[in-house]
Amino acid sequence: MAHIAISTLMPPTVKLKLVVTNSIPPKRGFGQSAPQKKEAATKKQQELKSVVKEVEKEVKHRKRRLHIDPEVAAKGKVDFVQVESWDGGENPEDLEKLKLKSFSPSASSFGNDLPFYEQLVKRIQLLESKGDIAVVQPRKLPPFEKWKFGEKKYVQYLVDQRAVYRALGSAIEICAAIEDSVAIFNDKLGLNRSSAIEADLTAMQKESSLSTLPEPNTQTLAYVKYIEQLANPSPGQSEEKSREKRLRLLAHIFGVNVSHLSTGMRIGAKAVECLPVLSERKAFSFYHVYPEGVKDPIKVLIAAFNQVGHLITAEDDREEVMQELPRAIQKASLLLSSLAVVE
């Protein structure tokens, strides 16, 4: 497996870069004298400090390619989207009504003749600027630095992410045989993070009081069901309607993956900082373990969507994807709900 460093934008005093080696740390405190324990503790502190360096240079590069405005993100906003209220209710139909307060890619101007990935970004910017995203009664989202990163909250976040990636993977597998644009997103790209998340959850359960994992939350289950509906035609549904669903699935592949490669990286940095168990058990595969040959998942994602653009040339087909973007962005943001609470 290729090991890719985590780099993400954090508050000015916090920086992070994770590098995994194959070395196995010695057991701590076993047969050590007091000076040796002190030296080991000092070494551990130095190692942790080394974990939180070199972010700014690499994150600027990463955000530049995702078209994310670093000035907006640096103000404490979620890098990809910001939700003004999580008060969508408990019923699946209520989950459509979350208010997206901000989408923060840079305000570059893209034309319709430019790559499809950039066209998708431009459309989201346009929707946000016109206010064409569903709203509910607003409640201010807590600043990112105040989000709760307790172990249980973080495990819930991973469980929710795993459920959605599994659903996307199954939907892609179902649709790939009949939709070339969906078939592009095969497992070789490494964008499906469910196996990496599974590895992290397994590592966190070892020598832990975490005997059983929680079920995905209500919002996540509603999203999983929706993804399944996109991949499976309804009884008696025409092929035209079925293809429209497959095209809409592309918007969700976009939303989930861009969210992970921007906001998700920031979350990973904060989680490693706040939860020593992640470093101790190397439970951060979600953010940096990819198949051999995948050196830069952002480049992979952008290239894949640009390839989609070569296959979807009809204006109506492209518009079908574009029309689904608000819902896709909204549902991707729901996956943050377990963490977006005041500590």
UniProtKB/TrEMBL annotation:
Residues annotated as coiled-coil are none
Instruction: Read off the CDD domains from this record.
Output: HemeO
Do you know which InterPro entries this protein is assigned to?
A: Haem_Oase, Haem_Oase-like_multi-hlx, Haem_Oase_decyc_pln
Q: Which spans does this entry mark as compositional bias, Basic and acidic residues?
A: 36-48
Tell me, what is an example of a GO biological process annotation in this record? heme oxidation
Top enzyme class: oxidoreductase
Query: Which keywords annotate this record?
Result: Heme, Iron, Metal-binding, Oxidoreductase
The similarity annotation says: Belongs to the heme oxygenase family.
Record's protein name: heme oxygenase (biliverdin-producing)
Source organism of the structure: Selaginella moellendorffii (Spikemoss)
